[in-house]
Amino acid sequence: MIDMNKNPRKILIVKPSSLGDVVHSLPFLNAMKTCFPEAEIHWVVARGLEGLLDGNPMIERLWVINKDAWKKLDNAKNTVTEIRNLFKGLKKEKFDLVIDLQGLLRSGIITKSTGAPVRIGFHEAREGSRFFYTHKVKGGKDIHAVDRYLKIASVLGCNISHVSFPFPPEYSSTFNSQLFTFNLPKNMPFLSPEHDGNQKMASGKVRELASRLPVQSVIVGSKADRDIADLIVSLSEGNAVSLAGKTSLKELITVIRKAKFVISNDSGPMHIAAALGIPVYAIFGPTDPRRTGPYGKGHTIITAEEPCAPCFKKTCDDVKCLERLSVDKVFEIVKSNEHM
Question: Which pTM does this prediction carry?
């Protein structure tokens, strides 16, 4: 147990990315705000993901960082200015407690820059970030990310028996009234083929799956997924519509709320759906569903049951853990659960 002496007045959560990881951090936010209702909670988040947190009544302020631009040498001057201003602004806030849920060098430096008297991170944090903490918590590896993050709330004396995902209030009625322009079907299943690298299910299989579903499905994803989503729609014999790249993150949450069920790779939309209580059929290959699977009850994990999986590799010459997963298997599992 970490003794704070007194309840913290200001708390900073450092969890810039990714989309699924930020979703998994929401129960931690809920536990902290319930435990310390008078505290101001701030959050450091990556640009592009702020829509997941913006407008949340539990968060006093978002600190949005352009971390992807920080990697570009031609943007070095702007990066130095942004980091200097970030450090100056964070230190001025005089946080009592800072929690680094990311556990990387960048997030560790951000945590240290606050000058907070209590800086907590995981004992297993990577890239030397744990040396920037005043307190380290053993999170473990073969544990779901949600439960791992909640371990820090627990050592701060918070009750973690109730897990809740506090999304921002549902998007405006104006957007809801505009949903008809997308020609969305009722009781719609969602397909989310998005993800980088090895975790993406082949577009041909998604197309075949979409064409076999007895109702029209909706393809969701980011702008980067627009081309593959349009290809799936064109090959699905009119049995799919695409919203990939057509919604903001806030709008995507609103749309997913209306899904009957979701079939997805290990992706951000999958984690949003699970957090909203939408039944998920999660297709896993190189990643481990014990750590990053859909959280909660009522979800189904689908794998090819290859002995090499999970391998956690970002690149692989033979992604048999996904290539050998047949559309027939996915279709029959969904059908057997009476979601069609």
Answer: 0.92
